[in-house]
Design goal:
Elements: H1 17-21, E1 25-28, H2 41-44, E2 50-62, E3 68-83, H3 88-104, E4 110-111, E5 118-122, E6 125-130, E7 133-143, H4 154-172
Antiparallel strand pairs: 1-2, 2-3, 3-7, 4-5, 5-6, 6-7
Length: about 170
């Protein structure tokens, strides 16, 4: 698999992502709250020869009837690193190296198959490589009572990232 063009990570977020990763919340504009910057491993490891795009989605705790509590929020950060070498094998090898480095940075990661070429998940973090692309997702909670937002489970994180990877393969593959 090879992805020749730019990838908009916001287009990878599917309809059930909120239910999987931020249950009991309302989707709000990303600039509604001054949220802390969340680093996503692939974004941290960006180097020359690749293109990094990021998407931030913000979800506030639902007070009922879709009324958001802007004091309690969950920030979902998606980063896509696309290696731009013209040689598809070389680009895939560089993406694989980034993926290996990313997994090495996270203890307690569950490795899974059937998502991309390589994939690792923990409860609040995920990374998947498919061809010359590494897709990373980080989830961070903030606010005074953010603990009231039910945490995303490992299975929920995997399901959401599997959906994102499917969209990536369907919509962006060359």
């Amino acid at each position: 698999m090879h992805y020749p063009g730019a990838i908009d990570p916001c287009r990878l977020v599917g309809a059930n992502t909120q239910a999987q990763l931020a249950p009991g919340t309302v989707d709000i504009p990303a600039d509604s709250v001054k949220a802390a910057e969340v680093k996503v491993v692939p974004d941290d490891r960006a180097t020359e020869g690749n293109e990094v795009t990021t998407c931030r989605r913000l979800y506030a705790r639902d007070l009922g009837g879709g009324k958001p509590n802007l004091q309690d929020y969950r920030l979902l950060t998606i980063a896509v690193v696309r290696f731009t070498q013209s040689d598809a094998d070389e680009a895939a090898a560089k993406a694989s190296q980034l993926m290996t480095d990313a997994l090495g940075d996270h203890s307690g990661v569950r490795l899974v198959t059937g998502v991309g070429d390589e994939a690792g998940f923990s409860e609040q973090w995920a990374a998947v490589r498919t061809g010359n692309v590494v897709l990373g997702v980080a989830i961070a909670d903030g606010g005074t009572e953010a603990a009231l937002i039910p945490p995303a489970t490992l299975d929920s994180v995997q399901a959401a990232v599997t959906d994102m990877t499917g969209t990536l393969q369907k919509d962006f593959q060359g």
